[in-house]
Design goal:
Blueprint: E1 9-16, E2 19-30, E3 33-37, H1 39-48, E4 58-60
Antiparallel strand pairs: 1-2, 1-4, 2-3
Length: about 60
């Protein structure tokens, strides 16, 4: 959907320190920089009701 409005997106697959299994996330190019978006992590964070910290670590394979 993001690409349909001409925003560059990269699909990444690998492991994260926040998710126990191999999964995928995206990087979106906004404001002249690539930003990581991982809805799996975001959904778990919302359920936990803890303060947000943007220190996710990803290993791309």
């Amino acid at each position: 959907m993001i690409r349909s409005v001409c925003i560059p997106v990269k699909l990444n697959m690998g492991r994260s320190t926040y998710v126990d299994t191999y999964h995928a996330w995206i990087k979106v190019y906004l404001d002249r920089q690539w930003s990581t978006i991982d809805t799996t992590v975001d959904a778990a964070w919302k359920k936990s009701k803890t303060k947000y910290k943007n220190n996710q670590r990803f290993i791309e394979i």
